[in-house]
């Protein structure tokens, strides 16, 4: 594996790991919300592709993992720009062809948006994309979510329809993050 750091058009660096097998083509792997290139799902996919002698590149979207930028909720088009920078890096700088772009969870939505805007990859793989985007952050956590985070530093009252707490969310502020970072514990 080799670490690759590439600057996007806005000057912020994108950091990723290339699982090199010597194949002529590369599959680009995109992680889900609040995750990183170290996501167990993304690592397993990269290793599985490697066993099939297919090179894979897994990277951190802006504001996630080691990549620069601010962590943001629902920044789909910024992540499309990140993916664009990665695709262009491999095709123009490394002279490699992209075999596919594969996204997991929120990353799956990003690859679908990418494919709708750009028509330069032959295959798009959607693994467990978010399909019901009607519910936003205010619907999930209440209209006063930002005030509660600023006041308390966290939200812990995520319940299902029957009132049972199903997730325990911690939100905390760091200067790097626009609103928050989060950790989810399944109860």
UniProtKB/TrEMBL annotation:
<feature type="domain" description="Serine aminopeptidase S33">
    <location>
        <begin position="24"/>
        <end position="138"/>
    </location>
</feature>
<dbReference type="InterPro" id="IPR022742">
    <property type="entry name" value="Hydrolase_4"/>
</dbReference>
<protein>
    <recommendedName>
        <fullName>Serine aminopeptidase S33 domain-containing protein</fullName>
    </recommendedName>
</protein>
<dbReference type="Pfam" id="PF12146">
    <property type="entry name" value="Hydrolase_4"/>
</dbReference>
<dbReference type="InterPro" id="IPR029058">
    <property type="entry name" value="AB_hydrolase_fold"/>
</dbReference>
